[in-house]
Amino acid sequence: MASFPRIFFRKISSTPALKAIDAGGAYHQEADKARDLWKKITLFVAFPAIAIASANCYVMEISHHHERPEFVPYEHMRIRTKKFFWGDGNHTFFHNKEVNPLPDGYED
Predict the structure, then answer these.
(1) Is the whole model's pTM more than 0.70, yes or no?
(2) 101, 78 in Cβ contact below 8 A?
(3) pLDDT tens per residue, range 47-93
(4) Which of 44, 45, 81, 91 has the most neighbouring CB atoms within 10 Å?
(5) For the purposes of burial, counting CB atoms within 10 Å of the CB of 106, is it exposed (0-12), middle (13-18) or buried (19 or more)?
(6) What end-to-end distance do the CA atoms of the chain give, in Å?
(7) Secondary structure letter of residue 86 according to DSSP
(8) Measured between alpha carbons, how far is 4 from 1 in angstroms, rounded to an integer?
C-alpha cells in the first residue's frame, strides 16, 4: 500500500505538460513576476491608500461639531409597552445619556 503514492506521483510528474513546465522554468519565472507585482502593489498602493483614508477619516471626525438635537416628544417614538428587564426598566441596553433621550426627554 505504501508504494501506491509513489507510483501515482511518478505517473503525474511524468506527464509531458509538467515536464515542459519544469524543463523551461517558465512557470516559475512567471510566478515570481506575479508575486513581485502583487508585493509592490500591496506595499506602494494598498498600504498608502489605507493610511490616507484613515487620516482623512480622522481629520473629518475631528472637524465635526456634534450638537445634540432638540428633543421633540413624538408619540410614535420611544414607546415602552413593557419595561426592560435590566436596570430601572426605562433605559435601553446601550443607553448613552448624552445622545439617547428617554420617553420624557434627555436626562440632564
Answers:
(1) no
(2) yes
(3) 999 999 999 999 999 998 788 889 999 989 888 889 989 988 989 89
(4) 91
(5) middle
(6) 79
(7) S
(8) 6
